[in-house]
Write a structure and sequence with these properties.
Elements: H1 12-17, H2 28-31, H3 44-51, H4 62-66, H5 73-81, H6 85-93, H7 100-105
């Protein structure tokens, strides 16, 4: 899946055309009487579709350089895109003891 330069051989233009998917939310009438999560998160298939929007930019990747935790976001998204959720979580655990926080900070 790598091209001759060592970068992932993917159609970045096609990936740019896909629109982001908004995570489902609890209705406001239910939120005002609860401290439960407002955003419900993605099911596995939706998470894979959303992760497939990652352009997998060649180095240096702006998302990796800009991540305060130093997470390898493209590598984690590559795993998520393939349904390898444990592997993706392990990527985030390499640089963070609290990887769950990253999903909240991005919203």
């Amino acid at each position: 899946m790598l091209d001759r330069t060592g970068a992932l051989d993917i159609d970045r233009k096609e990936r740019r055309r896909s629109s982001p998917i908004e995570p489902p939310k609890v209705a406001p009438a239910q939120r005002i009487s609860s401290f439960s999560e407002a955003k419900l998160g993605f099911d596995p298939e939706t998470a894979k579709r959303e992760a497939s929007r990652c352009l997998q930019c060649p180095s240096p990747q702006a998302c990796l350089r800009g991540c305060p935790a130093g997470n390898d976001v493209p590598r984690a998204f590559w795993h998520i895109e393939r349904g390898e959720f444990i592997e993706a979580a392990n990527v985030f655990r390499e640089t963070s003891n609290l990887p769950e926080i990253c999903s909240r900070a991005g919203h």
